[in-house]
Design brief:
The protein is mostly helical. Strands 1-4-3-2 form a 4-stranded parallel sheet, sandwiched between helices. It has a 3-stranded antiparallel sheet with strand order 5-7-6.
Length: about 850
């Protein structure tokens, strides 16, 4: 065997110089042994995932892969329970899971070994996931994969692009003549070399068959008869020889342990076998491998044989063995593994016992797939009349996005659980959460429970917090604050950290929309700290979203906003939350468009394109205004207007309606659509009258409205909007102040009060305040000619007009300017001529109404 191992190790060493190494050969060719020897010899820093038959679904595969990766990426397994619910309802689970794994592995440099990948091929999505992960991580992670076939992996592409060498196959793993003779010498039996070569030829060098044949001293003449059949028939013949050579106790032990994917010393001891017994058994059964210290696994082919033998004993014996194995697992606290065996046995009473005792805990640990399989085999009499079973089925249906079906299940389960407070309150809270997620009103449903002071704090606190968010959605801010304050004051030692994290996140959300921004910030930071400590990444992302909205609304700091969005996006990827990730992407896009950085926007454009299918529901609220601004940079005001036309009325608040209408008006007028622009300006004015004048959106709306007025030549209207905006600016609004300054400067350029160099300085100030996108908008705007001739007045004439507007007479003006009364009258006549006015009174009235002078 040493010769063979050395040859295969040398071949694997060459293949492992590439990012991907693949071993493809049928069962019994020693793939697992070759992998084990190579890992030990090469001293690789590797994790190994031995795929089992039970891993044939995408969720089961992902969970086991997460367990295997725990030494290098412990956060993946911790985050899996929350991830499983999103995967169940995902339209593209492979992409979502690939993003999730890549995020958790992004700092890893290691080797990942996957053996028996063919078992995962029962679900093509699992193979697609591995293929995508290899593509995205092979620059820093080496992959070694073994399977009975190529299972649909893109081998040709990997070879063509230099990611892997030619796969190791049957020919690489067969015994050569010299290797077979050397292996025969290592047995405790004397074998004739010619007999060994005959056996090698009959088995075609198939390692498992040849090894068994030599161990059992099978004669080539006897094997020749079996060799006329398939390879599996050869193996079965040899396995029968091995089984026949066992003692009765060894046979019974082998059959009893064949129901387990793997078993350890404790299970063996429960079945009456000590270490000496196992050692003797392994000496007779070559393919009982020790996969970890004290943990054993039969070769798949031999396990198949044992299971077939067990089934031949009859269905009752098969079921009894499964149930006894499940009971052993259950007694040592392995409820999920026990549930799998009970499900195979269709043991309804035992299934319902685990479901009622451990069902909710298993669901929260990410075992929804095992629960679903178990519920499916339950008789209707058990499944439909037990509150826990009905409730868990509803939770699974809700995770699959089937809310209408889930709702009936929740209500039925709650009704059945009147005498079981634990089950009832779990289902009440879960149903309330699903109502909120589905944009349904949860207030009427939750209020009776929230008022019930007899409910334990560990149940009542999360109900109060969820009710508070429901009040926010219903516009009942005072009730929301009261409910969340009550929830916070009820926290005690019975409340686990995970519940506390959710509570503080909900408190931050409530305070953000109905209370104090300072409180919201404090609660959000506490929620993030607790969430990250407990690997609740999606929850941390939601808390970061609250922080972002606070900074965006109050601090007016784009760099701080982007820093929060980076953390939000990272948590969203680790938590597998596509919704939170999309929020971060769109918000980053908004900030970067305002900054006007083309290099960054190129990257974001690609990401936006990749998420195009998810954007429609967000277009009117977030994406379209940003895209419209970019269109306006290039002077395509018609497209900008088309994107926003008709969207102002659908905005949530008066402030948002004012901002959207002002934007739309500006683009319409700049595109030459005067009637449409006037209509949108009217809508903006109406919304502004209902708005908080100090709100950032309102100040911005007034400045955009001023630009719209300038674009249509209404200087007085522009002056009014600019003045109103400037009056509302506060000390913390440096960026908006620079925007107001730029709009005021543009107005002054229009009136001839300053030159283009001053305008350039104002635009540069905008860029320095990370408002480069708005600077580009101002540069692209077409401004209409003024309705009056103010721009034609000389500086002296403007000074005289200003004094006249303040009530000065000709004599007063002469005294203040150092001119003679005759010269002043001459200037006044020139002013009236340029403004097409009949006299000084009309000139003063026009100048005042247009905002050219201040009285």
């Amino acid at each position: 065997m040493r010769l063979m191992r050395a040859r295969i190790n040398e071949r694997l060493e060459r293949a492992a110089r590439f990012p991907v190494t693949l071993i493809v050969a049928p069962a019994g060719f020693g793939k697992s042994v070759a992998l084990r020897d190579f890992i030990e010899t090469a001293r690789l820093q590797a994790v190994r995932y031995d795929v089992r038959r039970e891993d044939g679904t995408l969720l089961a595969f992902v969970r086991r892969l997460s367990e295997a990766l725990e030494p290098f990426a412990p956060s993946a397994l911790a985050a899996f329970p929350a991830m499983q619910e999103r995967v169940l309802a995902a339209d593209e689970p492979v992409l979502q899971l690939s993003d999730w794994f890549v995020e958790h592995l992004k700092r890893c440099e290691c080797t990942i070994v996957i053996d028996d990948l063919h078992y995962a091929a029962a679900d093509p999505a699992s193979i697609a996931l591995i293929a995508d992960l290899v593509e995205r991580t092979s620059d820093r992670i080496k992959w070694i994969i073994a399977a009975r076939s190529d299972v649909g992996l893109p081998i040709a592409t990997w070879i063509a692009y230099g990611r892997m060498d030619i796969p190791l196959g049957e020919d690489d793993l067969r015994f050569t003549t010299d290797e077979a003779l050397a292996a025969a010498d290592q047995t405790d039996k004397e074998l004739d070399p010619q007999e060994v070569e005959a056996l090698r030829q009959l088995t075609e060098g198939w390692p498992v068959a040849l090894t068994i044949a030599m161990r059992t001293r099978t004669h080539s003449a006897d094997l020749r008869t079996a060799s006329f059949g398939t390879r599996e028939m050869v193996y079965r013949y040899l396995a029968e020889q091995v089984f026949a050579g066992l003692s009765l106790a060894q046979r019974q032990f082998a059959l009893a342990t064949s129901v387990f994917s793997a078993f350890d010393g404790a299970i063996a001891q429960s079945l009456g076998a000590n270490q000496e017994f196992i050692d003797r058994l392994r000496a007779k059964i070559t393919f009982l491998n020790e996969i970890a210290p004290g943990e054993y696994r039969y070769h798949d082919l031999f396990r198949d044989f044992l299971e077939a033998e067990l089934r031949r004993s009859g269905e009752p014996e098969w079921v009894r063995s499964l149930c006894e194995g499940a009971q052993l697992l259950e007694n040592r606290g392995e409820a999920a593994a026990a549930l799998v065996l009970y499900t195979k046995a269709r043991a309804g009473e035992q299934i319902i016992q685990i479901i009622e005792r451990d069902g909710f805990t298993l669901f929260e640990r990410g075992e929804a797939a095992k629960i679903a399989d178990a519920l499916d085999v339950l008789p209707d009499a058990l499944r439909g009349k037990r509150a826990t079973a009905v409730g868990l089925r509803a939770m699974i249906d809700a995770s699959l996005g089937r809310f209408e079906i889930a709702e009936r299940g929740f209500l039925a389960g709650i009704g059945m659980a009147e005498s079981d407070d634990d089950v009832r309150m779990r289902l009440v809270h879960r149903y309330a959460i699903e109502l909120v997620r589905s944009d349904r009103d949860c207030v009427a449903f939750l209020e009776p429970y929230a008022r019930n002071r007899h409910i334990e704090a560990r149940y009542r606190v999360p109900l109060l917090a969820t009710l508070a968010t429901g009040y926010v959605h219903a516009g009942r801010g005072a009730d929301a604050l009261s409910a969340i304050e009550h929830a916070l004051s009820s926290i005690d030692t019975s409340i686990p950290d995970e519940t506390r994290a959710r509570l503080y996140q909900q408190a931050a959300y409530v305070e953000r929309y109905a209370g104090s921004k300072d409180n919201a910030r404090a609660y959000a930071n506490t929620a993030i700290e607790l969430a990250l400590a407990n690997n609740l990444y999606e929850l941390a992302a939601r808390a970061y979203s609250v922080l972002y909205t606070i900074v965006h609304d109050t601090a007016d700091d784009p760099i701080a906003s982007l820093a929060i969005l980076d953390k939000l996006s990272e948590c969203a990827r680790k938590g597998g939350s596509s919704q939170a990730r999309l929020f971060a992407l769109v918000a980053s896009y908004d900030v970067e468009v305002e900054r006007g950085d083309d290099l960054v926007l190129e990257q974001l454009d690609r990401q936006m394109q990749e998420n195009q299918a998810s954007l429609p529901r967000l277009r009117s609220t977030a994406v379209l205004p940003v895209q419209a601004l970019r269109a306006a940079w290039n002077g395509d005001f018609s497209s900008a207007f088309s994107m926003l036309e008709g969207t102002a009325a659908g905005q949530t608040t008066a402030e948002q309606r004012a901002l959207r209408a002002a934007e739309t008006a500006l683009y319409a007028i700049a595109a030459g659509l005067q009637d449409e622009g006037e209509r949108e300006l009217h809508a903006a004015t109406s919304a502004l009258s209902e708005s908080d004048p100090s709100a950032k959106d309102v100040i911005r709306a007034r400045l955009l409205a001023a630009l719209a007025e300038l674009a249509r030549g209404h200087d007085a209207g522009a002056h009014r909007y600019i003045t109103e905006a400037e009056r509302s600016l506060t000390a913390g609004m440096a960026r908006l102040r620079s925007f107001a300054h730029a709009v005021r400067t543009l107005y002054r350029v229009r009136l001839g009060q300053c030159d283009l160099e001053t305008m350039s300085a104002a635009l540069e100030r905008l860029r320095s305040e990370h408002f480069g996108g708005l600077a580009r908008l101002l540069s692209a705007l077409p401004l209409a000619a003024s309705e009056a001739g103010y721009s034609a007045l000389t500086p002296a004439e403007r000074e005289i007009l200003q004094l006249l507007a303040k009530g000065a007479s000709t004599k007063d003006v002469a005294g203040q300017t150092g001119r003679s009364p005759h010269t002043v009258d001459t200037h006044i006549r020139s002013i009236c001529r340029k403004l097409s006015c009949s006299g000084r009174r009309e000139a003063i009235a026009l100048a005042t109404s247009q905002g050219w002078v201040q009285t």
